[in-house]
Protein 1
Amino acid sequence: MKQVLFFTILLSAILPVHASAQDKISTSIEQEIINLSRQKWLWMADKKADTLAALFHEKSMFVHMGGSWGKEQEINVIKSGGIHYKKADIHEVSVKIIGNTAILLNRITLLAVVGGNEVTNPFMVTEVYIKESGKWLLGSLSFTRLIGQ
């Protein structure tokens, strides 16, 4: 009986510490993803296509108001200036980690030049990152225009 009581007390003391440590790890990973996403917006504004190419997974997909395409076309659009992501004002960010996948939601106001026209749009942007070989890569970037914003 004493042994059962001892192990019960021991487990109740250890489990909250383990959960707390797990929360800190998760929070650290979430912050890493948030920082990576913010850096990505700066690279997009600066048209750093080669840097972005290293971030984008080979099989990455991009969804815009005017269509969807893969990595090569996204890089070409950025290089050519077909879309110039001038400035993303980030209003809200949330991150969920599922195994080696991170899903980030950004509510932003995007100032961009599209086809030579400067436009500002409110978006909810979904970014999906996959951790491969110890490195986070962007697997998907999707823009959903918010109505009434």
Protein 2
Amino acid sequence: MAETKKLYTLADILGEPITEQEAQNLIRKETNSDEQTFQNYVNLNETYRNKLLHFIMGKNGLSITYDTVFRHVMLPGGDTKRLEHFLSIIFDQPIHINLITTFSDALREMDRNTEIYMVEQLAKEVQEKDHALAEKDNVIAEQAKLIEQLKKQLAETRSTD
């Protein structure tokens, strides 16, 4: 007889959603029990504190696909097998992905746009630095002229004495 796999819901994996107050109490309990955990929590900016709060409440999951390494390993040019295998292990049931190419195309486009933006920012920085160097070159040239004038004046003053 074939083994029947249980279908899991997010509530099965993450637990039932809780209220914001309950989540804050859990955070308080954890951060008060360990100094390092407290320091890590204190160092989070407000955005990440809210993400943690919403995760604990069961409102949101964690965005592990933002990690560059994860994206490279799990979404290599539209090959869905790695990600399907990974998710099947997590959920202990077969997972089949149908829309991965659209998702991969969107990620590729985002990466391309990010690269274009970074190149534009670098070009802007180089242009600003070139401009600053040109200004400094002008100051140095003016100072060199002034030094030459002062040398001439000194030479003239010495020759008249």
